[in-house]
Amino acid sequence: MIPTPALIAFYLLMPALILWLCYKSTLIDKIGSVILAYVFGILLGNSGLLPEGAAGVQDELSGITVALALPLLLFSMDVPSWLHSAGKAILSMLGATVLVVFVAGLGSWLVHAHIDNAWQFGGMAIGLYTGGTPNLAAIKTALDVDSTQYIMMHTYDAVNGIIYLIFVMSFGQKVFNKVLPKYKSVLTKYSTSEASENIHSYEGIFNPRILLGLLTGLGISIVILGVSFGLSQLIPKEYSTAAIMLLITTFGISSSFIPKIRKIPMTFQFGMYIILVFSLIVGSMANLKELVNINWSMMFFVNFIVFGTMLLHAVFCKIFNIDTDTFLITSVSAVCSPPFVPVVAKALNNKEIILSGLTTGIIGYAIGNYLGVGFAYIFRAFLF
User: Fold this and answer.
1) Rounded mean pLDDT of 281-295?
2) Nearest to residue 295, comparing CAs of 133, 118, 104, 48?
3) Which domain holds residue 262?
4) Full-prediction pTM beyond 0.85?
5) What's the burial of 89, exposed, middle or buried (CB within 10 Å: 0-12/13-18/19+)?
6) What's the domain count of the chain?
7) Is the distance from CB of 282 to CB of 42 less than 8 angstroms?
């Protein structure tokens, strides 16, 4: 068993080794640092070396890392430029939401003879694929879903989520560029320094001047996290996760308007390093043993919704002339939730779309519970 302090050290230091491997090998770099982080995490999580009580450490660290990374990723954002393209991102998100409701209803009807209470799974799927896991957990409670069935859906979603992310980050952009318009940069005079910065490069990060700036940026992120958490305590607990995400994003965006903060070098790279820590943690939480006895009806149901919605969403974006990167980032923000937006933005080599992904993802957080619970009862009334 690995002692808990050693486990934390592994999470914090392993990304440095992964980045070094990507720097040294072109082949490894093509695989991608994020996918490698998931792979190493999965290997650790299923090795039997995790200490007792590791789940609690993993939950705490995964939440903290995302909360600290998001402001760092947003500090260098060019908000004035993003506003020029926000309309299509919102339209894309609206299309994805309407389509997941349709596909979840159809999927529930197709499997209702093989899965008990399929209407409940339809409702959970809508919440999960508009907002994310917090919505899934909330709808599970609201609909009184059996815990075993809930865990089964959560596990199959995790497996399909990894397949989906690998596709998006490796082939997705090339595939959909053949049918959708390519993304056109909207960088303005506010962001000429970011335009020339390679978001994959960590060269010079140990320069004392850069390190001091990054420590300052980390300090600001900690303050943002503390203030956001404090303010979230003023609202009902069921909305606290969405509130914290919204507040962190709002404060991070607001900070980008302050020139001294926006010009801190390599805050995006530092944020991505922390996202690699998050990816390691999430990977180590996957339990492959739960996949031994596969419920093929449930596996079909989850696959049908994730990839069926994706294909219909692509058709929707084709009709409305929405570009590939905007399509992919809004799809990811819905299917995988906002914390994965920066991961995919890095794989697409386009940090301009982060704001679109986070914004649409937070909207999904806000409406997911209402849609999931509401349409679950509609499915029960009209489809079964």
Assistant:
1) 74
2) 118
3) 4-382
4) no
5) buried
6) 1
7) no
